[in-house]
Amino acid sequence: NSTMDQAQSQVASGMVSTTYTGIGDKTALLEAARSASARTNGYQSVTNLALNQVNQQDTDLTSISSLAGQLRQALTSAVANNDASILMSTASGIFDQLTQVLNSQDANGNYLYGGDKDNTPPVSATSLSDLTSLSSASDAFDNGSVARSVTIADGETVKIGVLASDAGQQLMQTLKDVADFNAGSNGNFGSGLSQAQSTFLSNEIGTATSASQSVNNLAAVNGQTYQQLQDASSNQQTMSTMYKGFVSDIQDVDMSTAVTNLNQDQVALQAALQVTSQLNQISLLNYLPAAGTTG
């Protein structure tokens, strides 16, 4: 009984049909919904990873801004106290922390701030003294020129990456300026400042402040990117639910109806089998008069 076979298959699988033939003229719509659902799920995965990266960048940019603030405070204290004896050790520590942040790697070992050159450390200088041999702080950076972008929907691409040079070059230049001055004829900072030293350090306070503000501006853009990704993630979830509903409406069977149909088919089959059994027991003898009986 093909009707009962279909009902049994529906109850067992939970689907209207396990073949395209059973789906009929809704096959194209079903496959379109499945394809759209798969694409949306893929975009969701990409967006979630992007959110993690942008969130990490927010933490790192906050750290870099804080490092710029620490340098500004060290410069301010040196001028105010007429004592720069610990300035260079402080600056060296700030350089080390800045480099560590900018050379951080993701779970796959790629350099987070390397852009399209993420297989090598974006900061090549290894110590504050390395900066004095460079003509510019920009020479300390070896990152690519294109920040990472991701596609979060059909035709929608978002730049999520931050380049090490964009995030750290201004602070690195301030550190280099301080290191260069200290290594020059007017340098060798100590417990007493010359007029030239005091003037130089006073000017660098403003430079460090500017470096901090520059990173804060970058963090603000990063925050906007995070919100854009959050909005995309919410939209993707809505679309994913919608596409799953499309697929379910076409593919999934109404289980209560399927069970009812199966029960009705089983009752009908049982009745048919009983009739067939009774017919098999009937012979011509059922219609012949009993012995000794006349018409």
Helix content: 55-70%
Query: Regions with pLDDT < 50 over 5+ consecutive residues?
Result: none
Total count of strands: 2
Overall average residue pLDDT: 84
Main sheet: strand order: 1-2
What summary fits the major beta sheet? 2 strands, antiparallel
Percentage of β-strand residues: under 5%
Termini distance?
45 Å
Structure description:
- The protein has 295 residues and is mainly α.
- The chain contains 8 helices and 2 strands.
- Strands 1-2 form a two-stranded antiparallel sheet.
- Strand 1 and strand 2 form a beta hairpin.
- The longest helix is centred in the C-terminal third of the chain and has 57 residues.
Task: Describe the secondary structure blueprint for this structure.
Elements (H helix, E strand, L loop, with lengths): L1 H12 L6 H4 L3 H55 L5 H16 L25 H4 L17 E5 L2 E4 L4 H20 L11 H57 L3 H27 L14
Antiparallel strand pairs: 1-2
Helix pairs in contact: 1-8, 3-4, 3-6, 3-7, 4-6, 6-7
